[in-house]
Every structure is written in C-alpha cells, then in structure tokens.
Amino acid sequence: MMTDGLAPQTWLHRVPAGVKFVGLALLSVLLLPVGDWRILAGALAVIAIVYAGFGRAGMARLSLLRPLVPLLVVVGGVQAASGGWNAGAVVTMRLLAMLLLADLVSMTTTMSALMEVLAPVLRLLRPLGVNPRKMALAVALVLRFVPVLMTRWRAREEAWKARTHRRIPPRLVAAFLADILQLADRVAETLDARGFDRSAADHHSPPL
C-alpha cells in the first residue's frame, strides 16, 4: 500500500523526521516574503539538483507532479492578470518550491516516523476532543496518498492518450473517483483488520 516513497535509500532518508519537518517549516517561512523571481528560480534550481541527485528515481518522482502544472498555471495567470507578470511568476515559483520541498520530506520519511513527529503536536488538541493518534494517522495518510493518487491518475491518462487523441472525458474522471473510493475502503479494512481502533491508545484517548 505504502509504496510511494523513494525506494533507494538516500542521505535524506537518514535525516531525522523531526529535523526535516522543522527545516521544511523554516524554508517555507523564508520563501514567503521573497518577491524576486530570480531568487525563487535559484531556490528551485537547488531543489531540482537534490531531486537529480537521487538519480532516475528522483527524476521519476518529479514527473509525478506534472498534474499540478495546470493548477499552478491558473494560479500564476490570475496573479499575473491582477499584478503583472512578475507577481504571477513569484507566486507560481513559490508554490512550486514549497510543494517540492514537502514532497522531498514525504518521500524520504516512513509512515511511522511521520506519526511520531505529528503526534506530540496534535496532543495539544486533545482538550478539544481530538484523538491525536487518529489525527496523526490521518495526516500521514494524506501526505502518503497524494503521490499514489497522482500515479494512478497518470496511468489512466496515459492509457487514454494511447488509445485516442481526444480530450479526457468526464467518465474517466468518474472512474478515477470510483477507484479512489475503493482504495479508501481497502485502507479502512486494512486498518480495521490491524485493530487500529482497538489499540490501547484509543482506550486512553477521547474519540475523534
């Protein structure tokens, strides 16, 4: 199920998950006030070098983010229309840099490490009735499944393009959504089979 991580072990796998999350937060904060597209272009070049350093697996991972390009173009286009091309370029590059940084953390961190990092922070929400263990699992699953869903959509898209040059029909999107729902059911069954709800932590935690 969790095969979305970068299979070959890299130097980034050996960095503690907490350090990677703190680094991601700091870099995101530093990127926010940057208004010069040349600085952001330099940051993107450095991130691209990190991906390239992972070899073919890293470059293949970059290709999985291709479905996000239309969204970035729309966001950048709206900003360019209202504030000029520089504003559009800055917003697009900043979003892309943050996405790539988050993906670097996600693909080099195991599910258990993700949960260990998130759980202490989410315990602060326990007085509000939030089960930190369930919430940590939910966040970790979302981070993990984004590239999985992208891979599945890309497979359907390429299969369609191989058969015809026509535009992607709505029924293909509907089939993809049905696939997602089936995947969600299987994940829920797997978690139930592993007794997640019957864990000791749940007995000591308020329900989500």
TrEMBL record:
<dbReference type="Pfam" id="PF02361">
    <property type="entry name" value="CbiQ"/>
</dbReference>
<feature type="transmembrane region" description="Helical">
    <location>
        <begin position="12"/>
        <end position="32"/>
    </location>
</feature>
<protein>
    <submittedName>
        <fullName>Energy-coupling factor transporter transmembrane protein EcfT</fullName>
    </submittedName>
</protein>
<dbReference type="GO" id="GO:0005886">
    <property type="term" value="C:plasma membrane"/>
</dbReference>
<keyword id="KW-0812">Transmembrane</keyword>
<feature type="transmembrane region" description="Helical">
    <location>
        <begin position="95"/>
        <end position="115"/>
    </location>
</feature>
<keyword id="KW-0472">Membrane</keyword>
<comment type="similarity">
    <text>Belongs to the CbiQ family.</text>
</comment>
<feature type="transmembrane region" description="Helical">
    <location>
        <begin position="64"/>
        <end position="83"/>
    </location>
</feature>
<dbReference type="InterPro" id="IPR003339">
    <property type="entry name" value="ABC/ECF_trnsptr_transmembrane"/>
</dbReference>
<feature type="transmembrane region" description="Helical">
    <location>
        <begin position="39"/>
        <end position="58"/>
    </location>
</feature>
<keyword id="KW-1133">Transmembrane helix</keyword>
